[in-house]
Write a structure and sequence with these properties.
By secondary structure, the chain is α/β, with parallel strands linked by helices. The protein is built from 7 helices and 7 strands. The strands form 2 sheets. A 5-stranded parallel beta sheet has the order 2-5-1-6-7, with helices on both faces. The protein has a two-stranded antiparallel sheet with strand order 3-4. Helix 1 crosses helix 7. The chain is globular and about 45 Å long.
């Protein structure tokens, strides 16, 4: 079973993935796989980021990894893979997200674009276009430790990916933050 761990950059995907690996879960870094397997189709110079061949990456993951075990696919584009069976979206309040992205030394334009994407639920909307609502979960990482985020994901796994009210989509809404000057 392929499970996306996705979210706007800075929401805690990589840090959470480290803990999940330490706990014995198979976690695949989407960006690393794309680079190592020449699944890039270009560079977005404006955003200073790589453009990934999503279809090729999807095919590679289906061929390379067994679907009979849980394989977490970590990356802010992982929800776009058609082979994904469940999606866990990590969310973060825009003000906290700004602080996290500042520590990464990102430029203001890139930070603003990602904060707006978080406030507008872009990853949730993209996920909803591909996956069933019952297969999408949201975890608010704003005020909890990375260990607690990993525990939330493990809780979702132990519940066999059945809907859980506290992780249902729609509980998190940062849209009013667009009116602020984060």
């Amino acid at each position: 079973m392929f499970v996306a761990i996705t979210g706007t950059p800075g929401t805690g995907k990589s840090s959470t993935s480290i803990i999940l690996r330490e706990k014995g879960f198979n976690v695949v870094d989407l960006n690393k796989i794309a680079i190592e397997n020449d699944l890039l189709v270009g560079i977005d110079k404006k955003r200073d980021s790589k453009i990934i061949n999503i279809s090729g990456l999807n095919d590679h993951i289906k061929k390379r990894y067994a679907a009979n075990e849980i394989v977490f696919i970590e990356g802010h584009l992982s929800h776009l893979l058609k082979s994904i069976e469940n999606v866990i979206i990590l969310r973060c309040h825009p003000l906290t997200l700004r602080k996290r992205l500042d520590t990464k030394k990102w430029n203001d334009e890139k930070i603003k674009e990602n904060i707006e994407a978080e406030a507008l639920d872009i990853i949730l909307c993209e996920s909803f276009e591909i996956h069933s609502e019952k297969k999408i979960f949201e975890v608010d990482t704003t005020n909890i430790s990375v260990e607690s985020v990993a525990s939330s994901i493990i809780e979702i796994v132990k519940n066999e990916f059945r809907p859980m009210k506290k992780y249902n989509i729609g509980n998190i809404d940062w849209s009013e933050e667009l009116l602020n000057n984060y």
